[in-house]
Amino acid sequence: MRAIRPLRHPAYRWLAGNLAFSVLAEGLWVVALVWQVVELGGGPAQLSLISGALAVGVLATALPGGVLADRVPQRRVLVLVALLQVGAVGAVAVLSLAGLLGYAALTVAALLIGVAGGLMFPAYSALVPHLVPADELQAVNGLEGMLRPALLNAGGPALAGVVVAAAGPGPAMAVVAAAAVAALGCALGLPRAAPAAAGADGAGSAGSPLADLREGFRYMRRTRWLLVTLLFASAMILVVLGPMEVLVPFAVKDRAGGGPTEHALVLAMFGLGGFLGSFLAGSLRLPRRYLTAMISMWAVGCVPMAVFGLATSLAPMAAAALVVGVLFNAPQVVWGTLLQRRVPRALLGRVSSLDFFVSLAFMPVSMALAGPLSGAVGLTPVFLVAGLAPVLIGAVALLVGRLGPDELAHPMDAMDAVDPVDPVDDDDAGPATVVAGPADEEDEEVSPRSGR
């Protein structure tokens, strides 16, 4: 079965295990945190503050994490990440069970978890192409896309909901810590002889870390498909992520009369949709117009978010979550494969971190604003904007970004992974893809180079 073929590689199995347990811990944390805040007497404003701290941690380390992933063995980074997760969540669990937990400790723990997340993503992304053949990268991204929603939005929240309902948020936090310990075990199981970072051969480590970071920024700025997609994602996340992460549990609670179990059900439906979308995207041929399809699915996938501001029962919310899950995760498989295919491996850690950083730049703003905005204008207007604005943003990205000639000139089913020692991809980073005047666009259209 194509979707699980990468698991035949022993080293990748350890990496997949590390990812699975890390994502499970994240899914457990989402629900355990909400009801821990509720137990402490808090509401959307307090949850926004704590979630915003996690987002700040991610943003603070995403760019340094990309440089680190291109300069040192990624196994070392993944072990450090797991240690941070174990320490942060373990401390919260102990304090909660002892009745000593407060908002300050939760905020610090969230910050550290965000730091770990900012370091993990580029290291994981840079390591994958070294552990599996190039023709299995799409399957890897499909498998990852199935793991994330299944554990982040379904298994983790469902388990946390059951534990919270039966024993309270403190024991749920202990389960989060156990998942983090399992992730640490998998990271330690990665072979010590795993390929060194791309810069270890001199390709990325001759200069200073700041110079490495500038090289990644130059590549992003000069590569239109990358820049346009990241700008679209930044704007979409500004209007969608805060309502999704902060306000959905309160829509379930206040509009549908639900509790931890109902909240977990909505997240599980999102996870089921994500699993299905990722399975299909990982198993089928990539669309010829892969950039257009990817941005369109993300934009249209936000529309069901409006249901959370209009519905007064659980069933429509669960159905909306299922559709959002399908249309959010299917293009994520395309995006991951696109990065691994078209970005030089010597730059993949930095470009992955820039992807993480630029696309999530407004994450803490969105999370911090969601609670106060809902208090000022109500849940309905906030969710309507979250559902409808991304459609307009996506249309602008496709029309202004002029991605058609690029995706036709670089068909994904006809290219191999970029040479791991080539620090400059002329097809992607050269003058033909600079967002410049009409002459550059004409050159790109009349001289397509699709044989990579």
Tell me what you see in this structure.
By secondary structure, the chain is an all-alpha fold. It has one domain (2-195, 208-446): Growth Hormone, Chain: A (Up-down Bundle), CATH 1.20.1250.20. The protein is 76% helix and 0% strand. The protein has helices at residues 10-39, 44-69, 74-97, 103-131, 137-167, 169-189, 209-222, 224-254, 260-283, 290-301, 307-310, 314-342, 348-359, 363-377, 379-401, 404-409, 426-429, 438-446. Helix 2 (44-69) packs antiparallel against helix 8 (224-254), helix 5 packs antiparallel against helix 12 (314-342) and helix 9 (260-283) packs parallel to helix 12 (314-342). The two termini are 27 Å apart. The relative contact order is 0.15. Mean pLDDT is 82; it is low at 195-205 and 416-452.
Low-confidence stretches: 195-205, 416-452
Give the averaged pLDDT, no decimals.
82
Give the helix/strand class: mainly alpha
Largest sheet: none
- DSSP helical segment count: 18
Tally of strands? 0
The end-to-end span amounts to 27 Å
The second-level CATH architecture is: Up-down Bundle
> What is the helix/strand order?
HHHHHHHHHHHHHHHHHH
CATH H-level homologous superfamily name: MFS general substrate transporter like domains
Overall form: globular
Rg (C-alpha, Å): 21 Å
What top-tier CATH class fits best? Mainly Alpha
Strand fraction band?
under 5%
